[in-house]
Amino acid sequence: MYINRLQEIDEMKSKIDSFRPLSSDILKQIQEYYKIGLTYSSNALEGNTLDLAETKVVIEDGLTINGKPMRDHLETLGHASAYNKLFEIAKNEFITEDDIKCLHKLFYEKIDSENAGKYRNKPVIVTGAGIDFPLPKELDKRMQEFTASLPAMKQEFHAVKYSAMVHALFVNIHPFIDGNGRVARLLMNLALLQSGYNITIIPPAVRADYIRALQASNHNDFEPFINFISEMVLEAQKEYLRIIERLQ
Questions:
Q1: What are the two backbone dihedrals, phi and then psi, of residue 63, each rounded to the nearest 5 degrees?
Q2: Closest Cα partner for 230 from 195, 173, 192?
Q3: Per residue in 88-126, is it b (16+ CB within 10 Å) or e — as a string?
Q4: pLDDT tens digits, 140-186
Q5: Is 247 helix (H, G, I), strand (E, B) or coil?
Q6: Per the residue annotation, which of 73, 79, 104, 174 is the catalytic one?
Q7: For residues 39 and 79, is the Cβ–Cβ distance under 8 A?
Q8: Cα 77 from chain centre
Q9: Per residue in 82-126, pLDDT tens?
Q10: Is the peptide bond before 21 cis (omega within 30 degrees of 0)?
């Protein structure tokens, strides 16, 4: 059972902020560390077979792993590229539609350049899930409405609740032919970075809980997902604090 951890998150953020500003060298080390972890975990949630060590080799050395599908390597390189872009986009106050398309293009262009950064032209069919994703003809309007709603949401909600809502609402639109989950997790982290929080990873070990909480949001019950994400953020903060204490 996941519970709301926002108060503890605020207390932990104060501890983290006491170490700021961090040196450029420490920031670079931390960003490179999370590039491996986030890429591995986000891809693994979608069935990518590369483990953490293999992900590191592919990103840092550009090598391929014998016996592993080429797509797994392309997903890894693409996600790492999109991750790098996060820190540039995070300097802006809000998430735009162009940001979303850019992240998808970076992730997906090595896999399918024709559809990278473009909304899908086919309906999404999920048998037995009770999910009604928008039709292709509705996507431009839905995505415009989604991004237009973000400034008010950011002002109204706690940053962690806001990041969870960004993730859930985006996934419920499902605008791209593939890669929606990974883009959703990138957007969640973009929302966190824009509000002064650190990268948050969803471990593959809690995939069933993650999917269950996310499915509830398909029916406008966002509380389970917000609670789940709040626990992920708190755990990420604990790790982040340990890292910066060690690097000081």
A1: -95, 160
A2: 192
A3: ebbeeeebeeebbbbbbbbbbbbbeeebbbbbbeeebee
A4: 999 999 999 999 999 999 999 999 999 999 999 999 999 999 999 99
A5: helix
A6: 174
A7: yes
A8: 16
A9: 999 999 999 999 999 999 999 999 999 999 999 999 999 999 876
A10: yes
If you average pLDDT over residues 197-209, what whole number do you get?
98
Instruction: Tell me if residue 79 is catalytic.
Output: no
The single residue listed with the structure tokens 């992900």 is 55
Q: At what angle do helices 24-45 and 52-61 cross, to 10 degrees?
A: 120
Contacts 24+ apart (CB under 8 A), 104-109: 104/176, 104/179, 104/183, 106/78, 106/81, 106/82, 107/75, 107/78, 107/79, 107/81, 107/82, 107/179, 107/182, 107/183, 107/186, 108/78, 108/176, 108/178, 108/179, 109/78
Q: Which residues contact 52 (CB under 8 A, 6 or more apart)?
A: 36, 37, 40
Residues contacting residue 195 through CB under 8 Å, at least 6 positions apart: 154, 159, 162, 163
Domains, the chain, in order of start with CATH, read 14-247 (1.10.3290.10)
Q: Tell me 129's DSSP state.
A: S
Residue keyed to tokens 């509705």: 138
C-alpha to C-alpha distance for 176 and 72, rounded to whole angstroms: 19
**Burial environment of residue 86 by CB neighbours within 10 A (0 to 12, 13 to 18, 19 or more):** buried
Residue with tokens 């991004």: 147
